[in-house]
Design goal:
By secondary structure, the chain is α+β, with helices and mostly antiparallel strands. It has 16 helices and 32 strands. A hairpin with a 2-residue loop joins strand 4 and strand 5.
């Protein structure tokens, strides 16, 4: 075996090994003196109930063939205890969980560390028949939605073995290799949402029923629509809502109540209800109120191309319901289609990184304080077990996003534990469904169509170099070398006669704007080549490969002579009569790429830099000022812009524009978004990097190098009353500005470099 489990076997239901969307209960009854600790892992996900109370969810995600192991101390034990572990097995293709064999593997140990109970011998297994199997998926990127049929007896099964479910036979399955959890354990605090409106529901058959690719795309592995046991998507699509004069907790036929929290949060939605008459209940939710009217909140369950609906058929009884999957919401609506219920409370068990509390701050500027709070909030929800893009639609560990989020992790937590787990997954990742040398665009994930983002692997190279400076973890950097060399070898096949990448395969991604239109990224895309030049330089420095550094300089020079039209950097060039010809495609983003990756500087291109500073950005009238230059979006152009301003002594402009770009987001959701509009994710991990930019703007701090124990500062800082306490290895870095005086308190062993 191994040093994680002594006797436990990975087990699953014998009759459901390859079925999609199976939920199993594994139960064990034990005495207080018998067990003090639990060791557990599972696939895809588990949640643990002790005496009917939810205590944990996991595991942290890992690469194909690996599982991360959790340890829990069992406290608040009674003389007689009941442990129930619910495990989901999706057996489908997703971006956030692997399409691999589901199982549970667990041991309970006594106070001497001896195994008393273990899977393969002591746990009883039951099919969770209360969760419906044949239902619609939640999204293109995640697995199945949640629909339930519950009675009091089934609900009470979590507290006592009452015969609510029939025991089924289990078999051992192939064992995975085991890994440390690495990331911090969540504390699972519960928050309540406030009731703020109630009203009535009417059915409007003329409403369009929402349709999306995740409902029918066979490659994802879905249930055909004619096999769905229920269709909440259709039911809710046909509903119109009318706000009443007063709020109410007792709801009956076609009535609703809406609940709100102070900010968009992520976790497990809770619903405590007394069902007076058999009821059909829908719980819908979203991050934002999309209504422009004040009379009724508009909750669009599909706004983010998701199925933000949990539905219940409930017999009379008292229920404390909690979703199995983590979701993201600021608004939750409880709809009673039939029956009668009393809603005691609606809330959420938060699922977020507890180390967010390591970071302390005070800003006299209320808007800046709001943005920093939102950035911390966004980070915590996107850094639980890996660095994810968003905690709602995908929960996926994307490259590029992680490059930025990991910078915020350093400032907020002081230790890049989540980044380490993220990068370790990439060291171990399975790559046989994409071209040789490539790594997945997000991971752990499976892709039915073999899609990948070639240029995002270059962000991976940049992140590894930053990770080394943040942590000094050379072991992981060396373990990652094979990936880096493979990436560079892959790209070398696409270099043209000038050494530039041309006609890349896959999904070339520059940013969410016109800069990513097909006619902008085809041929020789200069932003991608700017990124390539930087990645080559970084890889060469990281692994002592001079040829990479030389190639980087060659590419830089070619871009300068070929991709600059005398006024702006052009997005791309294409072949005409076998010769490369510059297009007329011009974007803000291409200019930002050039300055961010040091292709251009304010010294080498003073006129362009002046245009960038004074005529681009959030205040530009795009119809009259350089209308031929397409605007940037949050990801990544706007963030590049703020970085460039900070790096070039334009701190005051950067801070002002930070408010312009992001403060409205804090007002609407208390989180930061991936777009400058609300049509997609409104809680995107990479935007937590705004914390770094604000600290740079106000305090003039550029970066923390934990490897060499140095902190780099610019002489420029702003007259803004502010304080931050940033955790670093072995202490705290405290920065304070008061009465236009900057005070820097370094932890022991660190030195300041002033540039």
């Amino acid at each position: 075996m191994n040093n994680y489990f002594s006797l436990a076997k990975p087990i699953w239901s014998k009759g459901h090994l390859n079925e999609m969307n199976i939920s199993l209960y594994f139960s064990l009854d034990f005495k207080k003196e018998e067990c003090k600790k639990m060791v557990i892992t599972a696939n895809n996900f588990y949640r643990i109930y002790l005496n009917g109370k939810f205590i944990a969810y996991g595991p942290a995600r890992a690469a194909h063939g690996y599982q991360r192991v959790d340890y829990y101390d069992l406290s608040d034990l009674e003389d007689e205890n009941r442990l129930v572990v619910e495990v989901s097995g999706s057996n489908c293709v997703t971006f956030y969980a692997l399409n691999t064999t589901p199982f549970l593997q667990a041991e309970l140990l006594d106070e001497d560390g001896q195994v008393r109970y273990y899977t393969g011998r002591d746990f009883s297994c039951y099919l969770n028949a209360s969760r419906l199997q044949k239902v619609v998926r939640f999204s293109y990127q995640r697995a199945f939605s949640e629909s339930y049929r519950l009675n009091q007896m089934r609900f009470d099964f979590l507290k006592r073995n009452n015969g609510a479910y029939q025991e089924i036979e289990t078999v051992s399955v192939a064992e995975s290799k085991h890994l440390d959890r690495v990331v911090p354990y969540c504390s699972f605090p519960e928050v309540r949402f406030d009731l703020f409106e109630s009203g009535t529901v009417s059915i409007n058959e003329s409403n369009k029923v929402y349709e999306d690719r995740y409902m029918f795309l066979e490659g994802l592995k879905v249930f055909p629509q004619d096999q769905w046991v229920v269709d909440p998507n259709r039911d809710v699509s046909l509903m119109d809502f009318c706000r009443g004069c007063e709020t109410k907790r007792e709801l009956s036929n076609y009535e609703f109540s809406t609940y709100v929290y102070q900010e968009s949060s992520s976790g497990f939605i809770t619903l405590n209800v007394d069902v007076l008459e058999k009821a059909r209940v829908y719980v819908i939710f979203d991050e934002i109120n999309t209504s422009k009217e004040k009379d009724c909140c508009e909750i669009s369950f599909y706004r983010n191309t998701t199925h933000n609906i949990i539905d219940y058929d409930l017999d009379p009884g008292k229920y404390a319901l909690i979703s199995f999957e983590p979701y993201t919401a600021k608004y939750i609506r409880v709809i009673v289609a039939t029956g009668k219920v009393v809603v005691k409370n609606v809330g959420m068990v938060l699922y977020e990184n507890p180390d967010k509390l390591n970071f302390e701050y005070r800003f006299a500027n209320k808007k800046i304080s709001d943005i920093v709070h939102s950035a911390v909030n966004t980070f915590a929800q996107n850094a639980v077990d890996l660095l994810s893009d968003c905690p709602s639609r995908e929960r996926a560990g994307w490259l590029c996003d992680s490059y930025f989020t990991s910078k915020a992790e350093q400032y907020i937590t002081g230790e890049n534990k989540v980044e380490r787990a993220f990068l370790e997954n990439y060291v171990l990742c399975k790559k046989d469904d994409i071209p040789a040398g490539m790594i997945p665009m997000c991971y752990p994930a499976d892709f039915f169509d073999g899609n990948f983002i070639p240029n995002w692997t270059l962000w991976y190279v940049l992140e590894l170099a930053d990770y080394y400076l943040r942590t000094g973890d050379n072991d992981l950097v060396q373990q990652s070398k094979r990936n880096v060399l493979g990436i560079m070898d892959y790209f070398s096949k696409f270099e043209n006669e000038d050494g530039l990448l041309e006609d890349l395969e896959g999904w070339v991604f520059v940013e969410w704007s016109k800069a990513n239109d097909a006619d902008h990224i085809c041929g020789v895309n200069y932003p991608s080549n700017m990124l390539y030049s930087k990645a080559l330089k970084v890889a060469g420095e990281l692994y002592g490969m001079g040829d990479y550094i030389e190639k980087s300089e060659v590419i830089k020079k070619v871009i300068l002579t070929q991709g600059f039209n005398g006024e702006f950097f052009v997005d791309n060039s294409v072949r005409k009569d076998k010769k490369l010809v510059l297009t007329n495609n011009l974007t803000e983003t291409a200019q930002y790429y050039a300055f961010y990756f040091n292709i251009a500087t304010k010294e080498s291109h003073p006129k362009l830099f002046d245009t960038l500073v004074n005529h681009f950005g959030p205040y530009r009238d795009y119809k009259t000022i350089y209308p031929e230059i397409e605007k940037s979006n949050v990801m990544v152009g706007d963030v590049f812009r703020l970085s460039i301003l900070n790096d070039n002594e334009k701190n005051h402009i950067a801070l002002k524009e930070t408010i312009a770009y992001f403060h409205n987001m804090t007002v609407l959701t208390g989180t930061l978004w991936e777009h400058d509009s609300f049509h997609a994710s409104l809680n995107h991990g990479f935007t937590s990097f705004i914390i770094n930019l604000i600290i740079s703007s106000i305090f003039g701090m550029k970066h923390i190098d934990n490897t060499n124990k140095t902190v780099v500062f610019d002489s420029h800082y702003l007259d803004e009353d502010a304080f931050v306490s940033i955790p670093v290895l072995g202490g705290k870095l405290e920065l304070c500005i008061s009465n236009n005086e900057r005070k820097i308190s370094l932890p022991e062993g660190y030195k300041m470099i002033l540039k």
